[in-house]
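Re: beginner question about structure tokens

> Can someone show what the tokenized structure looks like for a real chain? I only ever see the sequence side.

Sure, here's an example I had lying around. Input first:
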Amino acid sequence: MPGKNKALGIYAAHRGELVNYANRILDDHARAEDVVQDAWERIAAIERKGALAEPRRYLFRIVRNLAIDISRVRKREARRDGGDIADIAELIPDETPSAETEMIARDELRCVLTGLEELPERTRLALTLHAVEGLKLREIAERLGISIGLAHALVVEGKTHCAKRVPRRP
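And the corresponding structure tokens:
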């Protein structure tokens, strides 16, 4: 049974490394141990049928595939069952903007504020009432004592002016 001895030798020599590898994927040491054991059983069964050219590489591949499969199953179950809080937290995407995105947004805001300061008083007020306070054109017209059409024209003019102040990004 030379194939079994070779598989056993590879398993024994790299067991700790394999467990660490699986644990990095699963973040669960006990499950990583199980994955490595399952992988060794599979490679031993394959080697009984014939020699493998690169059994160490193949063993690592089996461990990786098994660990990824278990990880996917855990995530699916967490979504379906509600899962435990740690599993659910992994599924929530990080929506924190990058430093670059934040810098670009601040720069654009600075440009818009500069554009807003350049507008005539009535146009600036109409745009602020619409964009910041969320008033409808009818409400802006009543507050400023103008027609709805003029309120609309002032808001459009203000938005267009401010948009021109924001540099175009590739």
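Each token stands for a local structural state, so reading them left to right follows the chain. The chain has eight helices and no strands.
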